[in-house]
Each structure stands twice: as C-alpha cells, then as structure tokens.
Amino acid sequence: MKESTNLNTMKPSNVRRKTVSISPEKLIQIECFQPEHPLPLVIKPAVDGLNLITWATNNRSWIETQLLEHGGLLFRKFDLKELPEFEQFIQAISGELLEYSYRSTPRTQVSGNIYTSTEYPATQVIPLHNEMAYSLEWPLKIWFFCVKSAEQKGETPIADSRKVFERIDNKIKNKFIQKKVMYVRNYGDKLDLDWQNVFQTTNKTEVENYCRSKGIEFDWKGNQLRTRQVCQAVATHPKTGELVWFNQAHLFHVSSLNPEVYQSLLATFKEEDLPRNAYYGDGSPIETSVLDEIREIYQQETVIFPWQEGDILMLDNMLTAHGRMPFVGSRKVVVGMAEPFTNQNSGA
C-alpha cells in the first residue's frame, strides 16, 4: 500500500524559499559584431523594458570583465534617449564623470560633463587614437552616445591597441620606448585651439601652475604660449598588465597634415612655430616612414560598425583606439569620460 502525503499537514516552517539568482546573460543577448572580431561585443536586451541603468548598476563586475576581454562594448536597442540618462548610465558603472581639461580638440559641454564629439568639419577623417594619450593623465574609460546618426557614414572606427602594439616592428617599438614622445604645441593664431580654451582659464598664472604640476615646459611670447611635454609611447594597462601602443605621435606630427596645408603653413611659420608637432622625447625628428607604417597598422586593425540612434559605445580607453569617419548630413554623437589615471612613469 502506497503511503500518501497530506499536504494540509505540512507546516510553513518546513518549506524553504529558494533565492533566485538571475545571471546577466539571462536578461541580455550578446554577440560579436563580426565573427572574426571580438571587438566590439554587442549587448542587447533579451526582455522587454529592461532598464539599462538598473541592469548596469547590478552587473558592474560582469561589465568590467567583458570590457577588459573585448576592449569595447556596444549597447544597442535599449530605450535610453536623454542625455541625463546617458550620464546616469556612466555613473552607474564608473562614478563621477571627468571634465575635459588640457584639451586637444574643440568640444562643447552639452550636459553636466557630457561633451560633443570632436567638432571638426564633416569632410575630415579623425585618425584612430586613444583619448588624451598625448599627456600623462587620461580617462580609463570613454563612452559615445549616438543621439542622431548621419545620413551617410559618420562611423566611429575602433581598433585594438594591444594588436597595434604587437604588430609594430620591434626596432620601432624599442626606439619609441627608449626615447618616448615629445609633443610641441603653439596655441592661438586661429589655426588651432588657443591656450584659454585648452586650459579652460584666462589666467596665465593658473596655466603656469598647471604646467609645472604636470611636468610641461612652457614659454610665453607676449600672449602666445608654447608648451613641450615628454610622454609615454607605450603604456601598461593597470588591470591586465598588457602593453598597449599609447601615444598620438601620428596625429601631432606634421606628416598628418595634407601636403598642401603643410606647405602653406611652412610658408608662414618656422617648423618650431607650427600649431602642433611631435618628436622623439630627446627632440630628434620622428621619421615620416615610421609613422606611415604605424598608420597602416591602425588601418589594418580598424573595425567599423554603422551607428544606430540610441547606441552607446563603451571603450576601455587604453585597450581600444577610436576615430571618426567623414559624414553627410547632421550627426550628433556625445561623449563622456571617467576613471582618471595618472602615469607615474612616462615609459611603459
């Protein structure tokens, strides 16, 4: 005779509630944009109405792990539309956003510490680079939010800085590691940013104090300012220990200019008076052929994806370089940065 169980006699104290743990992957879908490229990892909601800010708050560790592996995450099809929400999303992951100080390109502050992406003419290409790699301080993370995609093109190309480093010839790498990179900037004359914009002040004493604190040499000629700073060519990621190519020599060097523009500038300025230039850290010239080789490697490592409105691209700023393709029509991509890092050793 089978023994029967009377459910009515079971006491509530005998029934244990189970804690249900939902892994991050249960609420999202993940895929690589291209099978042959782990960069970027595309993350989409797997359930309707998933709040990206809440999800990110609860899964910071998972996001960090994926970012260190892939170098870049593309959040797509989340219902996030407003700039304050974008800022809250960044804060959920990395805390307070950074101000854009010691500037290299024109940007406009649009909300809190959210800025426009570099305001260069739509016809110009912005070469791949790591944000603020021309200095000894930079953000470890950077985010891009596509508010409005261009009618044509306007992508934000990206490339793995680890792969770029691996592919550069050892002789070139060793020379850069030994000598580092010197950035020379002459501010003003309407050809580049003036020093008031770069340093966000009109007070010369504040500029001088900033330069002294950052190891930047400076010279005044009336109201014109020239600075020189020697920075790393290669950097070590503070969390992974990996070496990455991390400088902007190929952007600052005069060989980045259109030949006609370069010749026109030389007709007006001495080379040392050009708005910006890059040298080896000892002041010797960097060979154009070397920079062309580096540019070619960046080109070969480039990954391009089309923007969709509402997309958020999150990059580890040391592991992944970014740029901008030319575009047609209006385009609005805004930027936020967080997690300041100071290189205590300007070498690797």
Automatic annotation (TrEMBL):
Its cofactor is Fe(2+). GO terms for molecular function: dioxygenase activity. It comes from the Bacteria. Residues 49-334 form the TauD/TfdA-like domain. InterPro entries: AlphaKG_dependent_hydroxylases, TauD-like_sf, TauD/TfdA-like. Keywords: Antibiotic biosynthesis, Dioxygenase, Oxidoreductase. The keyword Oxidoreductase applies. This is TauD/TfdA family dioxygenase. It comes from Funiculus sociatus GB2-A5.
